[in-house]
Fold this sequence. Notes:
Layout: E1 5-10, H1 18-31, E2 35-39, H2 42-48, E3 51-54, H3 81-93, E4 98-103, H4 105-118, E5 122-126, H5 142-163, E6 166-171, H6 178-187, E7 191-193, H7 201-213, E8 219-224, H8 231-243, E9 248-251, H9 263-281, E10 287-292, E11 295-300, H10 316-322
Parallel strand pairs: 1-2, 1-4, 4-5, 5-10, 6-8, 6-9, 7-8
Antiparallel strand pairs: 2-3, 10-11
Amino acid sequence: MSIKTIGILCSGGDAPGMNCAIRAVVRSAIFQKLKVVGIKRGYAGLLRGEFMDMNLSSVGNIIQRGGTILQTSRCPEWMKPEYRQTAVNILKHQGIDALVVIGGDGSFNGAKALWDEHQFPVVGIPGTIDNDISNTDYTIGFDTAVQTGIEAVDRIRDTAHSHARTFLVEVMGRNSAAIAIKVGVCTGAENILLPHDKVNHQKLADDIQRGMSRGKDSSIIIVAEGPTAGRSYDIQHVMKDMHHLDAHVCILGHIQRGGSPSSNDRFIASEMGNMAVTALVEGKFPMVTVVQNGKVLLTDLKNCTTKSDLNFADYQKLAETLSI
């Protein structure tokens, strides 16, 4: 089929670098003599008809901005086939021939349903700070989120040393260990607690005491938030009540989502946006732009619809070795 108009949306959580991908899609499409329609607030905005024509000026001066100019949302209605049928009708009524979806595995499942049920051309661009999409080594936003975490921990360590304190620093990662492991290794954290691991409070206390016995007067414990943010407070209470160790809690939370994207996120997002448009022009869909062995490639959309926490699993041993 001949594609003349491309729609683009962001879905799920925002991630630094999404604007870089949007910019690349718009500029690459215009270079190919295609029209681009931005869809605000993800699948929910699609169903509400929140469309905006995009041109070169629409994406001027956005490459350095965090978040997404198109905004994003979650859309429970998208789970129902009748709403997806309505979406396809709306897209066709708007003259949109194909869709670029920037988001995570849930967003890609929504895109896959459009293809499976209606053969509507789709290409995905992985954007999530958790770096937890199957079949890609990297997702847009991860590098910036890690750097934000590193800078925060470096500052906290200054205070920890000045006051001889232990800090539990909680980073994002509901189902993914990637941020916790990389931030922990890069900041020299004394311990890293991963999202689904049961906390061994005795070992944690022993590690802190061992450090004190050799002259350490402060410790940094990196805690992945896990299913419920704020788990650091439970750990803090157990350490105090059962092991008589005081620890201060610092939850980084959503500051890891925002901020100007790193050079790595800007470059990869730009490459992915360009490749997404090229794929649509060449009739390669449904596909996802991915990073494998250091290169941006295309893979079938069905390969990227599940979560994967394997990208940094190999580094858990490194973290444990260096934290002694």
